[in-house]
Amino acid sequence: MSNEDLHRSDSERATARSLPALPGHLAERVRRLNARDFGKTGDYVLYWMQTACRGHENPALDVALHLATHLDRPVIVAASLCSDGAYSSDRHHTFWLQGIVDAFTELHRRGIATVLHVAQLGHNVSAIEDLARGASVVVSEDMPVSPWRGRSQSLADETAVALWVVDTACIVPMRLTQRAFDRAYLYRDATRALRMQRLTRTWPEVSPVHEPKSLFNLPFVPVDWQHLDLAATVAGCAIDHGIGPVAHTRGGSSAGYARWSDFRDNRLRQYARRRINALDQDGVSRMSPYLHLGQVSPFRIAREAAKQGSDGSRKFLDELLIWRELSYAWCFHQPDHDTANALPAWARQTLADHAKDVDRSSIRGRR
Ligand SMILES: Cc1cc2nc3c(=O)[nH]c(=O)nc-3n(C[C@H](O)[C@H](O)[C@H](O)COP(=O)(O)OP(=O)(O)OC[C@H]3O[C@@H](n4cnc5c(N)ncnc54)[C@H](O)[C@@H]3O)c2cc1C
Q1: Structural domain tally of the chain?
Q2: What is the ipTM of this complex?
Q3: How many other CB atoms are found less than 10 A from the CB of residue 42?
């Protein structure tokens, strides 16, 4: 067992000891990223929304609500849009902000307080770190790839309060998979029982017990998301303005479910046959961006696809639950997944053997 695995096991044992109040379908999704106590100080439970941008069927939100009830404090949901990402552009920022407006509208209706920070020119403050200082515990999503993995771990290392991350993306929680599978059929077989137990379950929502908290003296000016001038906000960010928004792919839960319903009712049955034609734009669901930012619930998508019971839906579920979740679980167990170390030994050997090969492009260039 590697040091990483040992660390993870210790952390998980600690998690299990400290989660008596959480129902099983949430407890199985939680990891503690640091060993700080929760609830000793602070005025609220902070849910840092990063990759599950929705106000429903959201395990991280539900964990935050349970902890808030346990600690007798309100929940604040905060989202912060950074402009230092490798792919920060008008397209990304617009889609993300449209998603946050949808999610916050839903949370507002449920009586949950929200704070939006956008790192605009000259205002690149560390909003989440500042909010974490006043929190009793911070909850976020367990996203095993960069930049989220690093961002969450940095906050966990720097903050004085407990930080828990929750798997919001996979039907079979990543931490229940035993190892990094590199063959789909092995993953499919090893996780079959876990998947079958969870596939058709409805998701029980949790109600907040506290009034939304009013926030005074914030260290930054929060964005008024209810009256957001989206184009002006995006124009004020130091990002790539050469990549514009895509008019036919609006961000947010509403647009995501509209696209899903249309696909589910009209094309899911033909998915197995049509998906292999790369020129057939409507042969696939085009749900990827909504799933990526958690603007739709993968639990609902999987549940509704399973209900149809067609050849198409079975093929769709194989992509959604095997290929997609295999990749999540792989990254979860393989922290260096984005380096050459993650390659099999034979591939690394081949690369090493040919490291000194002449650059073919330079040969072509000399002709
Ligand atoms: C040769 C090849 C390589 C691919 N490599 C990847 C890859 O590295 N990463 C990746 O995410 N997708 C990969 N895909 C799958 C697919 O092309 C992309 O996920 C696609 O952009 C998603 O479009 P969609 O939402 O319409 O997918 P749909 O076909 O409608 O599938 C629904 C969802 O299932 C998931 N999914 C579907 N197929 C795959 C898959 N093969 N692997 C992982 N998740 C899947 C995605 O979340 C997708 O949104 C690959 C497909 C092919 C043919």
Answers
A1: 1
A2: 0.90
A3: 20
